[in-house]
Amino acid sequence: MKIASFNINGIKARIAALSDWLKEAEPDVVLLQEIKSVDENFPRAHFEDMGYAVETHGQKSFNGVAILSKLPLEDVTRGLPGDDADEQARWIEATVVDRRAVRVCGLYLPNGNPAPGPKYDYKLAWMDRLHRRAQDLLKSEEPFLMAGDYNVIPQDEDAARPEAWEKDALALPDSRAAWRRLVNLGLTDAFRVMEPGAGHYTFWDYQAGAWNRDDGIRIDHVLLGPQCADLLLECQIDREVRGREKPSDHVPVWVRLDA
DNA sequence: ATGACAATCAGAGATTGA
Question: Is A20 strand, coil or helix?
Fold first, then answer.
């Protein structure tokens, strides 16, 4: 089972680029972030015609997550538990059934800039809710993963120029501590365990020729629960997608599971 | 120190992103 995460930076603007990548990468499941669309305007029929089931959790203009799946999706839930007043669409879950059933969670973690400030407070509070959701998923002792745009640069080797991010919400000590607290529950950073080296990124800013200078950061991650980590076969970043026509500023990261 | 670039909504330019 091949499961990918892709922050597409607007579904309407990315229909062609996403479709091209789907045809060649042939993922079974794709967790999308920043669809920037309400559910009614998501080009559902287009992706259904490509063989995917479509589940969305959108809002107007910003944020928004979705799942595309060639395999049946069951028990879909929307919204990260823990704050009924939170109206930002950043979390969707479903169970994918093939040889094994895997609970997949798609997430778009708040950016948090400027820090300090209310946006950073929201980011840290959201990460605390994520920690609690992970604890509950761990209790099930079933295979699960949480993948998406975490907006966290875990370590200096995950940035081409770590000094440029020192005071940024993506790399501040409190952000990294919250990331470690999550991982230390017993989750596996799928890419990091398969590729221990530096220089692997998932995001390059549109500005200042970041892509041409390979001035990137690794902020899109796949965290695996223990039973899911047992099934891990492969994890890769499709970096070449960033060099194409009308690209997102993020690229896909995917895992292949023995499931 | 600032803006650079892109998407959205709207129908110009502000807002957001990372």
Answer: helix
Strand B nucleotides within a 7 Å radius of protein CB atoms:
3-9, 16-18
Q: Provide the pLDDT confidence category of residue A171 given band limits of 50, 70 and 90.
A: very high
Local confidence band at A88 (pLDDT 50, 70, 90 cut-offs): very high
Domain boundaries of chain A, sorted by first residue: 2-257
Are the CB atoms for A143 and A225 separated by under 8 Å?
yes
According to the model, what pLDDT value does residue A80 have? 97
A35: nt with nearest C1' to CA: B7
Would strands A220-224 and A188-189 be described as parallel, antiparallel, or unpaired?
Answer: antiparallel
Q: b/e map of A93-121 (b: 16 or more CB within 10 Å)?
A: bbbbeeeebbbbbbbbbbbbeebeeeebe
Q: Which of A155, A91, A93 is nearest to A129 (CA)?
A: A91
- The class that CATH gives domain A2-257 is alpha beta
Q: Give the mean model confidence (pLDDT) for residues A175-184.
A: 98
Nearest nucleotide over every DNA/RNA strand to the A61 CA, judged by C1': B8
pLDDT above 70 covers a percentage of chain A that reads: 100
Give yes or no for a cis peptide into A114 (omega within 30° of 0).
yes
User: What is the value of pTM for the model shown?
Assistant: 0.97
